[in-house]
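Friendly challenge for the regulars: who can give me the structure tokens for this chain first? No prize, just bragging rights.
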Amino acid sequence: MPVPVPRQRAIPAVECGQAQAAPAGGGPLTEGTPRTDDRTDDRREATVENNATPGGGVPHDVTAAHTNLTLLLIEDDPTAAPIVPDLLDSAGKPIRMRTARNLTEAERLLTDDVHCILLDLALPAPGRAAGDELAVLRHVLELAPRHAVLALTASGDAERGAEAVRVGAQDYLFRDELDGRLLSRAIRYAVERKRSDTAERRLAEGRLRAQENARLERGLLPTPLLEGSPLRFAARYRPGRSRALLGGDFYDTVRTPDGTVHAMIGDVCGHGPDEAALGVELRIAWRALTLAGLCGDQLLSTLQQVLEHERDDDEIFATLCTVDIAPDGRRAGLCLAGHPAPLIARPDRPARLLPYDNNGPALGLLPGARWPRMQVELGAEWSLMLYTDGLIEGRIGEGRERLGQDGMVEMIRRQLADGLTGEDLLRAAVNEVRDLNGGELTDDVAVVLLDRVP
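First reply, four minutes later:
Bragging rights claimed.
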């Protein structure tokens, strides 16, 4: 049977030389103040015990609003310390005080209810390097990185005090020039400055992480390899996750040495970071396999193996549409793995969907599945649009009706009739779908457009 761990006890004032309970008339909580009610002080210490965690944790922001500020004085000669009366916080409450004669004792007294440390820079520090006059300050900053620190130095030693601020203290004070008003104000200032510095640092760290994530996600989006091809390429991508650049949708386009242009678009079920990562893996695998000469059923079978090995859950699947356009640009092979059929638009007829009768299952659903490759005629001049279901599953107005493939085809027909092409067409299509939905779409949207103009 495990041995019970003793409950952490707050340190009473009589054990550490800290201030005792404040008298009714106010004033500092210093050693020697008569105790008015032991039971009241016990209740106060019990409150500290419930909230404090040894080891220099984050001081509670609510403490200053509901209880007295607490100062930890680290001074090897407490009798000579600048303890003056009437240390008050901004609300007029007495500032509690604890005293420690050395760093070992300070570490024991440094609990979460301590807001500020007043440190004598003349104290010796363990393992002090020769000539390092601020070794004790560096040690305290390592011990309590989230507490405000005031450096206490000799009068006239402003250079040492300024260096202490550069190292990490919030301010410095001269030992022989202290009075109650100055020290009270310095404590309040140090606590607020530390909170402000901490908030600013966290904000800067958050911005840096966001910038790094944005660069990473942009780097994961594909760069089409179409050098030497007469086809024009455009793409539009909008992730469903708030403030994200990448979702579970993925696409790519490459031209192989024989002149064939291969295009692909896919959708991993879900739109979180795990799905986005899996989508990137499938896209990279598709490009490598395509450049290696695979296409059609052989390529999709291999991609399914990649998906099965990389997914975290057996229920994760991905839909996929692949198109390989012949070097002359007049015909193409089409494979659909549970994915909506592409849209083709030509000058001599209205935009329509390519055949999808031989649509195979999504990747990851059926072991040993097969995906037939259909041959389609494109003609001399055409626009081919590949898209994910985020473009067609948005709602129309406030009801339950969705845009659907028929609604999308009609929308593209109208926009083509208005003379929109390329990036302008895709931008208008995505914006209109979002407007019809009455706001941002919850699913990822990816659209790829290839144009052949003689």
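Confidence is low (pLDDT under 50) at residues 1-66. The first strand starts at residue 70 and ends at 74. Your move, everyone else.
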